[in-house]
Specification:
Radius of gyration: 17 Å
Strand order of the largest sheet: 6-7-8-3-9
Oligomer: single chain
CATH topology: Rossmann fold
Order of helices and strands: EEEHEEHEHHHHEHEEH
Structural class: alpha/beta
Number of strands: 9
CATH class: Alpha Beta
CATH architecture: 3-Layer(aba) Sandwich
CATH superfamily: P-loop containing nucleotide triphosphate hydrolases
Length: 233
């Protein structure tokens, strides 16, 4: 079963003639770990906006977990994303006034499905996940602003993984790390995806990372736009 299936997908901004996204077909298999690369302006941010439901396609279809995600309304797509997609942002987007453990458990407040996956003791499962991601135990009750960049990255990964979502999307989350820490983080992320059976779509411009993944695609290989264009996301 494919986790993601895109068909005849296009996106263009209103009053602009050129398409940013023009994908005839793309799929991501269950459990697959895919590295997607692309230069600035190639459409990476727009593609992730489409896959997360932040923007709607101009035409074509987006199926995620065999649900036609692109036709869901705003509240429906928000709930679907909360239930089934873990997102690791480039800037992490942690809530600064919450502790580490509160940040990690945040998805369970918006998704009963993910909350049920954490029973009978959500906090214990969150602590166990943080330990697997090698976050020191004495960090758990700190505010995230007191952590190093590498530690914040692990918290962001734990928040995405908590409650076993089927799809993990990572938007250049290693851009602030040195080479050794980048590789170590990706290995930990992949181990957790393997344990839960999640598929991983990892977007980056860093070509050195691609050998670590099951498959690598340059966005230009499946996005049929003739020229890179400026993005607004």
């Amino acid at each position: 079963m494919n986790i993601i299936e895109l068909k005849d997908l296009t996106f263009r901004w209103p009053q602009r003639n050129e398409s940013i996204i023009n994908i005839e077909h793309f799929s991501l298999a269950h459990g697959e770990k895919l590295f997607v690369s692309g230069a600035s302006g190639s459409g990476k941010s727009t593609l992730l906006g489409l896959l997360s439901g932040i923007i709607k396609p101009s035409s074509g279809s987006i199926h995620i977990l065999q649900t036609q995600f692109s036709t869901l309304n705003g509240p429906q797509s928000d709930q679907f994303r909360a239930d089934h997609i873990g997102y690791i942002f480039q800037q992490f987007n942690l809530i600064p006034y919450l502790s580490v453990i509160e940040n990690v458990l945040l998805p369970s407040l918006f998704s009963n499905r993910r909350k049920q996956q954490l029973q009978p003791d959500p906090q214990a499962q969150a602590i166990e996940l943080l330990a697997k991601l090698k976050l020191p135990k004495d960090c758990i009750n700190r505010q995230v602003t007191q952590l190093s960049i590498g530690q914040q990255q692990r918290v962001a990964a734990a928040r995405a993984l908590i409650g076993n979502p089927e799809l993990i999307i990572a938007d250049e989350p290693t851009s602030a790390l040195d080479r050794d820490n980048r590789s170590a983080f990706i290995q930990l992320l992949m181990e957790q995806c393997t344990l839960t059976g999640a598929s991983l779509l990892f977007v980056s411009h860093d070509q050195q990372l691609q050998p670590l993944f099951d498959r690598h695609l340059a966005l230009s290989q499946f996005n049929n736009c003739e020229e890179p264009v400026d993005e607004y996301l």
